[in-house]
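Sanity check

After download, print the first record. It should look like this:
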Amino acid sequence: MSAHSEFEKDLSNTIYAKTGEHICINLPSENVVEVRAISRKGSMPLGIFWVHVFQHPNNYPVYSYPYKKLYHGKKDYELQLRVDGVNVTINLASGQLFIKGFHVVDWFVQRIPVLLQAYEKPPGQCGPRAIEPLFTSEDIAVLTAEREKRYKQYLEQWPPLSLDSSGKDVMAAGKANLFHEPTNPDSYLDGQDLETFNPNADLLMGEETLEQLTRLECGRSIPGVVLYRLWRSTLSLWFSDSQSKVYLVTPYIDTGRMIDVCELFLKHQLTACLDTLVVPLSNIQGKFAVVRKEAIQRFPVQEQVLLEYKILGKVVFPVVDILNSFLAVVKDGKAHVLHSNAEFSASNFLTTAVTAVSYSHLDEELFLKNYLDPILV
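Expected structure tokens:
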């Protein structure tokens, strides 16, 4: 980053006025921005300043955003936050601000001045920063196309001997890592993966999803946000298999989760098959009518026809009320059921409150008899 840029000058002057520290801005790699004190000893006041800026009620307050603390001895050492698709780390001892993520330079240049301006204002004059995409879908499409173009050019310039099967695997792996950060399989269900607390968290990869489902075979209580990410990932995985029939049963589904179902279906529309979506008759008027209308209006007209036929046309309203939910898939005569006592709504999914979850397998005939028949009588 140019030492003479107006942005860097303004940022340096602001921080010096607040902390008395001179800073430097480094770009160690394409997806990393680092702000640190020039002093070799670092600056604790600088670290405290960054904490106050990010946790200010007008920005990312602790009561609305999931911060993670890492301890060094008995003292706070680092504070981490996953927001807007970037990872923010503040080292309280050295004052270093470390930001990592896709298009992080754009995020840094656009968001940091806004955060500093909000920090100067009294609480409440501008609401907490919303977790929202930094780029529109059109921007992402252009950036993705450009990245694909550069990737292809780079590949074509490699020496022929380096383009054997192993070399291509390495390139593909490196390319995939730009878009997905693997989870820790041992701690995911405990809610220790920071990305999970982002309402727009990336989906788990297929193997990761299957591994976490296997861990639920004996049943377990997990946070709602963890279940939500696993629920979306499982639905995406099952929709990607053309031989699978998917069933959704819940006491209530809100607009956001209905949109999730529609988006994941459209993502895999060539293979996805939703057999039945069960919502009790008590929701046909009022709640579900509003959900249906609001969800379908979020999509272009040409997609609404497909969704009306493939998703909303599969809704069944049983007379009996339901007290719990499950997501199931039937394939090759076997049924696999992700069962929980959480309804498909923001109040149950976007929370750290725990819910009981289990994953089971049974024959298709038993699934229809034991799970669906008592509901669809």
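If your output differs, re-run the checksum step. Summary of this record's structure: The longest strand covers residues 354-363.
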